[in-house]
Amino acid sequence: MNTRTRLLIDYYIGGIAHAVLKPFVILLGRVLERDHRLDVPQDVTVVKLLGGGSLVVAYPALLAIRRHPNVRRMRLVASPAAKPFGELLGIFDEVILIRDNAPLALMVDSLRAFARLWRTDTLIDLEIHSRLTTIFCLLTFARNRIGFYTQESFWRRGISTHLLFCQLSEGIYHFYDQVAKILGAAPISFQECGQVLHAHLHLPPAAVPGAAPKRIAVAPCCSELGRERMMKIEEWIIVLRNHFPRIQPEEIHLLGSGADRPYLEALAAAVAAVWPAIRLTNHAGRSSLLESVNQLAAMDQLLAIDSSLLHVARLLGIRSVSYWGPTDPRTRLRPGIVPEEVHYARLPCSPCIHIAAKTPCGGNNLCMRFAVDPNHPADKNPIWLA
Asked: What string of DSSP letters covers 226-280?
């Protein structure tokens, strides 16, 4: 199944399930009168299926929960795409896999997960926009089911036991931190989180700030959820042309998944044609996430769009230059400890990802053109007519 199909299933099947189950849930809640206090969670499970980078953004909150003296076990329910990020962080005792590539696999793995999580203590649903994950958490009969609601997700009221308001125009990390707070977990600084992850992964120290970068990593790709964040090959050449007059690297390392390899091969060919003297390595599809992070840790600087590797780099204290358009950097970038460059020219239609079911431009992401070149001749107030 592609991402569009997954979203449609979530919207319609999840919507029907909400409509059918909600009256019974409200009635049973009043009859059973279960104890929903949050002061003594012993078994905490996090649900995150789409966008493994969100786990990295939530890492300070998740680490705080992991360190809570009453939390004896912490688990993650994840898709194959999100699972490597859960394993990377090193805070989960177990990762429960739910394959989402086909309806039958989704059903079978969900049933297995129900059996593993039956009447568990606390579930945290990090899928802010999903209907089916709310139903999934409900059917485990967990004592506490913590989730988020927005101005649109009123349907979660009466089904989740604890709902936190999430303002999509603000930093998502604020609301992840609120989960830790209501569980009584002490906040952990961004700097300390980076140190903990460094130690867990046995990584070398980050490059000294101020030194001229000799090895540069480029992470130009992202997950299927919001490909409008990506730039054209020729735009990356412009980015590198603007960057190299100040900094001439010896090596460029292209990072991405196996699915990104055709795009990165085209980018590698374009870069080699302009700068033949620079040593160029394409790691796409040849490295696991852990290996990519180890490669990233050896770099002096990262050039990236809004992607999981950018969030990992910031956490590890690696200098970064990032380009934004369909997402607003203010909603994703927790204040870091290393100076960074953020390029974002907010158009009237931006941000749109996570707000509109389908991006209004249909992939003609002019916002990324302006991130590369603020003086781009295109109209900064485009009309997207459906």
From this structure: TGGG---HHHHHHHHHHHTTT---SEEEE---GGGHHHHHHHHHHHHHH-TTSEE
